[in-house]
UniProtKB/TrEMBL annotation:
Keywords: Cytoplasm, Methyltransferase, Nucleus, S-adenosyl-L-methionine, Transferase. The gene is Eef1akmt2. This is EFMT2 methyltransferase. It catalyses: L-lysyl-[protein] + 3 S-adenosyl-L-methionine = N(6),N(6),N(6)-trimethyl-L-lysyl-[protein] + 3 S-adenosyl-L-homocysteine + 3 H(+). SUPFAM superfamilies: S-adenosyl-L-methionine-dependent methyltransferases. One of its GO terms (biological process) is methylation. Pfam families: Methyltransf_31 (PF13847). Residues 45-172 form the Methyltransferase domain.
Amino acid sequence: WDAAYERELQTFQDIGDTGEIWFGEESMVRIIRWLEKHEVPLDSSVLDIGTGNGVLLVELAKSGYTNLTGIDYSPSAIQLSEKVREKEGMSNIKLKVEDFLAPSAELSGFDICIDKGTFDAVSLDPEDAVGKRKLYVGSLSRVLKPEGFFLITSCNWTKEELLNEFGEGFEILEELPTPKFCFGGRIGNSVTALVFQRK
């Protein structure tokens, strides 16, 4: 990931392109629309897990959210998100290099945690993916307040599989609509987006 974000950082410095927006712009709109629909207070503490280029945080700030933190274990990703934050003039967004599977003590008490593809990446780790998924769920339980919301967007997991992964300690509130496709007479989704609440 460091190499990928180093390339994106160089591209941003060269031509101002922020790089890949995971799951596209509509995924950010879907998250913001849900927060607005449920009248989530603008001063709620929000953690973007695996923030990458930080564009989701910028969009949240533009929508009025004021207590935003982004973490990524890739220092290059955080450098890129800092440049994007500066370009957009969003100095109130907090960014830090942090491994979500071993979060520091100060990473706690968030009202909302958002994941767009980070759990997918953790799940593909060739070394002990099952153990790392368990670490992820444990970390989420530590950093998210009781009754806090967890919004996850995944292209690797179905709704049923995510319910199984996060069944302990979280309950599903809602499945967010995502684009559908038809193949061989069956209809499916290429992306799953769910909202959980910590018990």
